[in-house]
Design brief:
Elements (H helix, E strand, L loop, with lengths): L1 H13 L3 H36 L2 E6 L10 E10 L4 E8 L6 E5 L4 E7 L4 E5 L2 E7 L1 E10 L7 E14 L3 E14 L11 H8 L4 E2 L3 E8 L2 E8 L11 E4 L12 E5 L2 E7 L10 E9 L7 E9 L4
Parallel strand pairs: 11-18
Antiparallel strand pairs: 1-2, 2-8, 3-7, 4-9, 5-8, 6-7, 9-10, 12-13, 13-16, 14-17, 15-16, 17-18
C-alpha cells in the first residue's frame, strides 16, 4: 500500500498513471537484480560441482608403456569415492542418476568395449538403488588404426558425470587425461600392482553359458526361466539380480527362485509404470562361486521377452 501511495503522488505530479510508474519500477528492479540472481545460481552450481569433485577422484592407468598401430590396448579408470558416499550404476534403481562415462579420442582411435563391475544394492527407506562405494574400476578396450601416425603420441580423455549421495546428493563432473606414445614396436608392460587389478577383474560379469533363458510378463509378475544344458546347475543361495534395463521391475520386491521340471524360475514383481517392453532384457546375475576368492561371480544376461 505504501508503494502504491508513493506511485499515486508521483503520477499526480507528473500527470502519468501510477500503474505506469509501478511497471517501470518492476522492469528496473528485474533488470538490476536478475543478473545478480543468475550469477548467484551459477556460483551455486559451480560450488556444488567443486564440492562433488572433492568426493569423487578419477585416475587412468595404462598397462602398456606405449601403443602400437593396428592393435588393441586397454585402459583402467579408477574412481575413488569418499567414505560414506556413493555414486550410481548404469541403472540407478529407484533413485539417483546413472553415472555417465564418455571418451574424447584422437582420430584413428576407437572405443571397442567398456566393462562395468556389478553394483551394490543400496537401501534407503523404501527405495532400492544400485551403485558403487569406496573404489571402483572400469576397463576399456581401444583399437588403433593401422594408419595412425608413428612415431607420435595419443591423448585420451575420460569425462565422467555422476551424482554422489549420502544423506543428500551433489551432481558432479570430472575428467582425466592420459597421453601414450605411439611406436611401431610391440608394447612392453608397465610395472603395476597386479593384485589390485586382478581383483578388479573378478567384478566384471561374464556371459552365462550352458543355459537358455526366456522371460514372460504375466499381469503383475515377471517370470524368467533358465533352461540348463548338459546337466548344468545354478547355486541360488544368496543370488542377486540387477536390472540393467530400467523401469521394468519393482526393485524393492524380493525375488523368488524355484525349480520346475529341471529348469530354474525367477519370479519378480512388475513395476506399475512398465508399459512398453523391449524384445530383450539386459541384466546381471550374481551367484555364489568357489572359482574366485570373492566367493561370487557375475554373469551378463540378455533375455528374450515372450510377447504377452
Amino acid at each position: 500500500m505504501i508503494l502504491i501511495d508513493i506511485m499515486e503522488r508521483l503520477s499526480r505530479a507528473n500527470h502519468i498513471s501510477w500503474r505506469q510508474y509501478l511497471g517501470s519500477f518492476f522492469i528496473l528492479s528485474w533488470s538490476v537484480f536478475f543478473p545478480f540472481a543468475l550469477a548467484a545460481a551459477a556460483i551455486e552450481v559451480k560450488d556444488q560441482n567443486e564440492a562433488a569433485s572433492d568426493l569423487v577422484r578419477a585416475e587412468l592407468f595404462s598397462p602398456n608403456a606405449w601403443v602400437q598401430p593396428g592393435t588393441c590396448f586397454h585402459l583402467w579408470l579408477r574412481l575413488t569415492i569418499a567414505k560414506g558416499w556413493h555414486i550410481y550404476w548404469k541403472n540407478p534403481g529407484d533413485s539417483g542418476l546413472p553415472t555417465e562415462i564418455s571418451w574424447r579420442l584422437p582420430a584413428g582411435l576407437q572405443l571397442e568395449e567398456m566393462l562395468w563391475p556389478w553394483p551394490k544394492r543400496i537401501l534407503a527407506e523404501e527405495a532400492t538403488s544400485f551403485g558403487y562405494e569406496g573404489e571402483v574400476f572400469f576397463l576399456s578396450r581401444f583399437s588403433v588404426s593401422a594408419a595412425f601416425p608413428c612415431p607420435s603420441a595419443a591423448s585420451l580423455r575420460a569425462e565422467i558425470n555422476y551424482l554422489v549421495c549420502r544423506e543428500g546428493c551433489l551432481p558432479g563432473s570430472t575428467s582425466v587425461e592420459i597421453t601414450l606414445p605411439v611406436k611401431s614396436d610391440r608394447p612392453t608392460k608397465k610395472e603395476m600392482n597386479p593384485s589390485l587389478f586382478d581383483e578388479a577383474r573378478l567384478l566384471f560379469p561374464e556371459p552365462l553359458t550352458g543355459f537358455n533363458t526366456r522371460a514372460e510378463v504375466k499381469e503383475e509378475k515377471i517370470m524368467i526361466y533358465f533352461y540348463p544344458e548338459g546337466g548344468r546347475s545354478l547355486d541360488l543361495e544368496g543370488a542377486e539380480f540387477f536390472w540393467e534395463t530400467e523401469g521394468l521391475a519393482d526393485y524393492s520386491a524380493p525375488p523368488i527362485w524355484r525349480q520346475e521340471n529341471g529348469s530354474y524360475l525367477l519370479e519378480l514383481k512388475r513395476s506399475a509404470a512398465s508399459a512398453v517392453w523391449p524384445p530383450v532384457i539386459k541384466a546381471v546375475l550374481v551367484l555364489k562361486s568357489n572359482e574366485t576368492k570373492l566367493g561370487q561371480k557375475a554373469f551378463d544376461l540378455h533375455i528374450p521377452v515372450k510377447n504377452y
